[in-house]
Every structure is written in C-alpha cells, then in structure tokens.
Amino acid sequence: MNNIIKTLSVVKTFKFWKELIVMTLGMMVTAAAVYYFLVPSKLIIGTISGLSIVLCNIFGAMGWEVKLSVLIAVINAVLLILAYILVDHEFGIKTVYTAMILGPLTDVWDKIMPWTSIAVPNSVTGATSVMGDPWLDLCCFVLLLSASQALMFSINASTGGLDILAKIVNKYLHFDIGASVSIAGAVICCTAFFINDFRMVVIGLIGTWINGIVVDYFTATLNNKKRICIVSQDYDRIRQFIINDLHRGCTMYEVIGGYTGEKSIELVSLLTKDEFSKLMSFLKDNNIHSFTTAGNVSEVYGLWLKNSHRKAIRSSADSR
Questions:
Q1: Per-residue pLDDT tens digits for 48-61
Q2: What separation in angstroms does the CA of 176 have from each of 180, 181, 183, 214, 247?
Q3: Quick check: pTM over 0.70?
Q4: Which among 228, 277, 270, 223 has a CA at the least distance from the CA of 247?
Q5: Which CATH architecture describes the domain 225-319?
C-alpha cells in the first residue's frame, strides 16, 4: 500500500509530466542512435541494445526470428524491477516509461526512414552501415547516446538497460556515473565474440570506455554550479541580495587580509550559472567593491535548498 501511495505521489506532480516530455525527446534520440548506428554496423557497445543485437543474431542462426524491439523490452522489464526496488520510486517509474518506449521507437524510425535506404558500403570490408565506417558509426552513436544518458540522469531517470545497473553501482558504491556505465558495459561487449571478429569487439570496448567519459562530461556540464567567494565591506548588501533576490543561502566567515591586516567578511555561496550572472551584474550595477573568486562544482550532495528555493520563488511571485 505504501508503495502505491509513493508511486501516485510522484505521478500526480506537474514536475513529472513536464519531465515526461523531456524523457520522450531524449528516448527518440537514443532510439535513433541505436537504429541508425548500432544495428547496421553490428557494433556491440556496452548497452542492453547491444546485448539484444547479439541475441537476435544468435536466435536467427538457430532459425528463430525474434524482433530486436521485443528483446529490448523483455530484458528491460527484468531490470526495471531492480530499479524500482534498489534505487527509488521516482527513478523506477521514469525508467519504466523510458525503457518500454525504446523498442517501439526503433520501429518508428524504421517506418519513417529505414537505415537500408541511407546505408553505404565500407570501402575496405564491403559491409554496409549509415556512415560506411565503424569508427564513424561509433562516434555518432556514443555522442548521441551519452547526451541522452546525461540528460536522463540529471532528472533522476535513465535510458533503461545497463543504465539501471550503472545507477545502482553509482548509488551504493559511489563510483562516478561514467565509470559505472563503462564497467557494466564492458561485460556486455565481451558477448560480441559470438557474432563479431576480434577487431569489432575491441572497437566496441573502446566505444564503451569513451561512452563513460562523455557521459561524465555531459553530466558535469548539465549539473555545473558556481561556488563563489566574495570579500567585501558591503557584505550585508550582498548577503541580502543572495537571500532575498536569488533565494539562496550563504555562509559568512571573518577573515583577515594578509597584506593589510584588515578584518573583513567573506561570503561563500553555491549558485547556478544564471544566478551567478545576476550576482555579478548586481555587484557591477551597484558599484560594490569586492574581491570575488568563482569555481565550478559538478556534484552537490545533501541539502541545497532546491525545494525551499522553488517555494521562495513562488511566494515572491504571489506577493507581487
């Protein structure tokens, strides 16, 4: 009963339905990456889609015709149970949606523009693929998939499949999400020996490693915050602006200048890029003399007043 209540509490929020649109667009990109760059080239990157391609070929050799979309859906269904139990309800619900639409979306791309209509032969091997070269297919696939994965992780979702295992490893073992993706994917890559030669397997392993690196890059970019440190005699005006206008918190320290020996106050705060830009404009427009440093922070744990921040903005808007 408690699980049902928690599930309903997530689904009925406006935030969930807004993010549903983002998830759908992200999965369309993922499906395009799989259909146009993974399937034709038979590259096996560390994903459930790659494992499904291996199984499709094995079943085909045995005389059993199984659709790729069906295999993707079945394997994801098993992993979704793990997501719901081991991560959290919101992640589980969102991943149920993304994982179950990946297979059908590959069929949608097949109806819109079959890859066979745009494939070109490899000048060396004669095999056909969209880019005509396995390395170019690899680059295109990794870039599209990594961008989609980072977007999903930023809203507490995933593209399904091994992303679920990566999220579990990230949560319980505290590995970087990119490293988690690479470790889980490397195991899947080794199954490619059933259908590919050694060279193609190596390309897949390299692609899996690059995938983890690019996911970390996109994740850091999406989650990037600014840690600002300001030393100024007008510290109270700055504090009031951060609290009342930006609706963020700050920490104050008493500091002593090493050169002048003067005592002052240093303010430290964590802001988004947009908020940082507003703060710098405030300092400039009000001719506030200050010594300011700023650094990038890609990961934030614990309380960062996200909920309080939203409530403060709504309260401020209502008061107007």
A1: 766 777 778 778 77
A2: 6, 9, 11, 12, 30
A3: no
A4: 270
A5: 2-Layer Sandwich (3.30)
